[in-house]
Write a structure and sequence with these properties.
2 domains; Ubiquitin-like (UB roll); DNA polymerase, domain 1; about 170 residues; alpha+beta; 5-stranded mixed sheet; binds FE2/S2 (inorganic) cluster; single chain; about 15% strand
Length: about 170
């Protein structure tokens, strides 16, 4: 039986300490969108089955619709809005645009959050590993092939940038 009583919940959101009043069982997704005015985290299925609501918690992708508030207390949450300064997220966005990987866009913020975390941690580095980390994401527009291709481009662009900077 979900708890309806609200209490303060303090966590780190996009590098800032925040405290919100919420029920212990309230999904993080509702707090982000309804209380904290962060609509970039999307509501898709609400059942941890589509990946549209992915955020990073302590650097790992998690579905905000399936994350109760009690579980984020004291942890670091990053939403798509918190990735504004991330070079990896920027490369991904550029590659998605170049390849027209986004159609309606409903799935994209969750996908970019997951890919950013996976690329930065070294988990996603080739086609196979990209497909593996995107396994939890649905794209109803059928852009999967372009999304994988754009992710590969973003990784290649990062490697090219590193090589350029390494030149004497
Ligand atoms: S809305 Fe969270 S996984 Fe679909
Ligand atoms: S671009 Fe429409 S759901 Fe993925």
């Amino acid at each position: 039986m979900p708890s309806l009583a609200e209490s303060p919940h303090t966590f780190i959101l996009n590098d800032q300490n925040v405290t919100v009043s919420a029920a212990d069982d309230e999904p993080l997704l509702y707090v982000l969108r309804d209380q904290l005015n962060l609509p970039g985290t999307r509501f898709g299925c609400g059942l941890n089955q589509c990946g549209a609501c992915r955020v990073l918690i302590d650097g790992r992708p998690a579905s905000a619709c399936d994350t109760p508030m009690w579980s984020v207390v004291g942890h670091a949450v990053v939403t798509i809005e918190g990735l504004n300064a991330s070079p990896t997220a920027r490369r991904l966005q550029d590659a998605f645009e170049a390849q027209q990987a986004g159609q309606c866009g409903a799935c994209l913020s969750g996908i970019i959050v997951t890919l950013t975390g996976a690329i930065d941690s070294g988990v996603a580095h080739d086609e196979r590993s990209i497909r593996s980390v995107l396994d939890a994401h649905l794209c109803r527009c059928g852009s999967h092939a372009r999304i994988v291709s754009a992710a590969l481009d973003a990784i290649a662009n990062a490697s090219a940038t590193k090589l350029t900077h390494a030149q004497p």
